[in-house]
# Entry
Amino acid sequence: MADRRESLKIIGAIGATCAFPFSADELYGQHEGHLAGKPAALPAPSFFSAAEMAKIQKIADLIIPATDTPGALAAGVPAYIDFVCSRNAPLAKTIRQGLASLDRIDEAALRQLDRAKSPFFHAVKSVTADGYYTSKIGLIDELGYRGNAVLAEFPSCEEH
# Structure
């Protein structure tokens, strides 16, 4: 489980910077001033149906479960997925078709989709990581991001 979370941190850090076409101020950590306050609330889910949202919640929770840190559900990832899909028709189509094809949602089913290199699983895993690592929980609490600040010097990396 730790290896998966470490991999998702890398994916999230890369993907969060340019993965989806919406303005940067909609991402939590883009402005240092946001660090002290709460993130801007994403709109209530409006794109997916209640049944689809229930599946998205279960999938997001399986991809980034709560461990010693909060998981995807606590970070509001399902609402983020709904938000992004409402503005990205190709992604929405891929995810909606994948959701319709799922008979069951459990870790074994997701591993099978991953091994099959399913476009649906790749898309939902990517948007889950993006949502998590652009949330306060993922960006600040887990990754320790401190904001866009100018440093007089960079701290050195020393092995202990």
In short: Residues 16-37 have pLDDT under 50 and may be disordered. The chain has one domain: 2-32+39-142. The longest helix spans residues 119-133.
